Protein 1
Amino acid sequence: MWHVHEICYPLDYPTAAGHFPDNPIIPGAVLLDEAIHAIGGAAGVDDFTIRSAKFLDPVRPGETLELRWERRPDGQTAFECRARNPERLVLIGLLQIGLGRL
């Protein structure tokens, strides 16, 4: 079963202005941090191991994203993050959360 969380970065998001001047994007670390906290919050845990993360397309301030995740049979949690307009995959990865409770 997939779980879903919406993410929206406002046009004036603070880290975007300096990353990069005249071509603002949301840093990958910010995207990954949001994913980890959303998934962990839903599971009620705050300890994680990032097994993999791949950034596929830049995210701009003002974009709305959909984060989806599901627990796999091996105990890891697969996640993906898609921009809504235009529709595109921006981040994929695998987490080991806590003791594999998610």
Note: Helices lie at 14-17, 28-43.
Protein 2
Amino acid sequence: MCGGGGGAFAGSTCVVTGGLGFIGSNLVHRLVADGAAVRVVDALVPDHGGDTRNVEGLDVDVVVSDIGADAVAEVVEGADVVFNLAGQVSHTASMTDPEKDLFLNTVTHARFLEHLRRVSPGTRVVHASTRQVYGRALRVPVDEDHPANPVDVNGAAKLAGEHLHLVYARAHGMRITSLRLTNVYGPRQRLSSDALGFLPVFVRKALLGEPISLFGDGSQRRDCLHVDDVVDAMLAAVDDAGAGRVYNVGTDIDHSLAEIAEIAVRVAGSDSTITKTAWPADHQRIDIGSFRSDSGLIARELGWKASVGLEEGFCGTFAFYREHPWYLSST
């Protein structure tokens, strides 16, 4: 079994919602290695990437449940830290089934916050939000003072969920921090769907030697964040200096989508070709154009800064999936 570490979280009790998914499971691995006792809550919503194999071999308690369910109150009671990563992340899916997105990103979180307020109001909470709340950038890089103007239901729902967390922080004195994550990639990400962002699609196609299609001319720019850096940011955000605050979590370096595809193909040693195609209407209407986060605030206040470069991150990512090929076909 993994665990038994002697790090900063040794002896603490941590709850990770969405802990069977991509970012959540990487966080669980880190916490267990650090010596924390970890409780995982995950609804295992179909097509969202949650899988018990993501935490296989770890000594953790797993509860398969909607985070708003009454039984979850027992899970969070007495926890030292709650990392709330549960939610729906597909932008296109949010437009085809808006009520489901609003339920998973807003309603369940309101119920979850009520559980915390009733049974464990002193627990430290770190909430995962998204850069999608900003919508199309009026200026780049985008700092926390940039207006929030989401272009899709997912961005609107995540913004509402973020505001709910901050309301509970202000109104009930709860110690909550929300992190607006940029485009995240790395091990344990679901690769078999085209609806969860461009990075897992690029990784899958590069691994399989399949053509990578870029919408439009591929000139839109993004900052790409390795999941290890995200985990570092979440652990840094436990510091009470960040309570009641919202922080961008991204990188200082951006690339065009064409450059990202080229780097993926080269690092993978792939035969994939890169082509350009017309924008599908359902994607174009919610495209945000170019985006890069300004993460200076979290650097100044909590000392976090991304450290994994794109080529280095892709190298480790491809190695991981070659060792765990089930990710390429798992539903």
Note: The chain is about 35% helix and 15% strand.
Protein 3
Amino acid sequence: MQKALVVLSGGQDSTTCLYWAIEKFGRERVSTVSFDYGQRHLIELESAKQIAQLAGVEHQVLPINTFNALGGNALSGNEEVDNALDMENNLPNTFVPGRNIIFMSYAAALAYQKKITHLITGVAQTDYSGYPDCRQDTLQALQQTLNLGMEQSFTIHTPLMYMSKAETVKLAVRLGALEALALSHTCYNGQRPPCGRCAACILRAKGFAEAGVDDPLIELEEK
């Protein structure tokens, strides 16, 4: 029976992908992995743990704190979150160079040990912050590299790649993931309730509004 490993950040997109994987592969054949990479907001690791428990799947956290040593961005360094784009590279300062490439490489290494060939990640090149490691061509190239480098036949699934945030919300509703989304964490400022000002909060709010669905995270925080 085919098994799947979901890279679970604790955010909206990876949570939706977890429920997508459960539907596709079966709950008993799905496991999750999160990464402690020196991020400033450890709340996302707690969210990932709670979501995995709610979904009834195995969860593992791998420590990879090199990004913290590298710094240079607002998620693992000391910079303040800025929604403006850097004039030099046209990317926001929440971009962590190489993060998704490293995440998927470690996920593949873990999957290799567990005899898992299907990897799922919540990256999207539609309605996102412009990160180049979220694009389909990046993931396709990475899949080929991992297969060559490990003599494996990994398939990297990106269910949300071409979806808008509103479409991902509708998918989450269909998959029965709203209860889990109440536990998710998206805010770049690490706030709960979310700050509502950073690009991640704005994009999340826009998606729920356009889908005509109340964000269960906001409802939970207001109770």
Note: Residues 4-222 form a domain with the Rossmann fold fold (CATH 3.40.50.620).
